[in-house]
Amino acid sequence: MSKKNELFSKDADFSKLVKKAKRKSLIRNGLISVIVSVILFIGLFWLGTFLMYKKMEQESNYDYAWQSIIGANVEYGGSLFNYTPFSATVTTEINKYLADTPVPWGNHEKVFTIFGPSRAIHSHSISGKGEIEDERIPLYFLGERVIEFYHPDGNYEFIPDDKSLLDEIDENKLVELAYSFDTAYTIAEVQEMFGDQLSWYWVDDATPLSQNGAEDQPIIGNNVYGFLHGEEREQRVEFFIRQIESLREEKGDFQQEANRLYDAITDNGQLEPEVQNLKIIGAVVTGTPEQLQQFNELPNIRAAVLGATTDRY
Fold this sequence. Notes:
Blueprint: H1 3-67, E1 75-83, E2 87-98, E3 101-113, E4 119-121, E5 127-128, E6 139-141, E7 144-145, E8 148-149, E9 173-185, H2 187-194, E10 198-203, E11 219-220, E12 226-228, H3 233-249, H4 255-265, E13 280-287, H5 289-293, E14 301-311
Helix pairs in contact: 3-4
């Protein structure tokens, strides 16, 4: 073979080696890129999941503090966590208790995602049906009557008195009745009025009322503040006050309202936030129709509104 042919042969072999080296380099760089991308994705996913769980814990605690002070005669139960790769849904069961018998009152659902803010899901709403000329249109939620409250100083076109409906309800039913008082009373005075039938106290939160003789609107039970009756009553009241104080200290959706509520129960700082200083302007009582009829002649009841009912057994 001539030197010229040997030179061309060596050039061809060298070219093949270069191409082979380039292929190996490309494959190696590609694998490194894939591995780095996978590690980066896993790291970002883990970080996003960690931050989402942290946010879930903080918001769930914050929501619980709010839920524990608002809503008439409702209790929030345990929460169910449903996870997906990029989100989680927290579902909390809500019940009313009529003489220790639970009545389902919907769920509170909140969706958390790795990317973006959380959002609440509302699957049920309060509704009513009637004519515009009706004096009052009862409201319903999940097929049950919704209680309403009337402030002692409010100016209302019509004030309902559903106590007469107790005569029409079967004795094998348990009933929820919301009483609005003619003035504010102490916790001890309210307990003395209703005894074992007492379920929940409505705390005066100085809700703004209409001025210049304009008509006020009743307050739906979901939007009033108070606490449940039961054993260790004083601890329940102290817990109610502590939750308001904690909501004031933490930035969030309810901080402004918590500040307003704190000012109301302390009379703008003139009173200490203590059990004996809370003003009670309404209550929820539960029991059989016969048990609740004993309160029909109480003179300090301004309005009585029927709420949920359930079978006794």
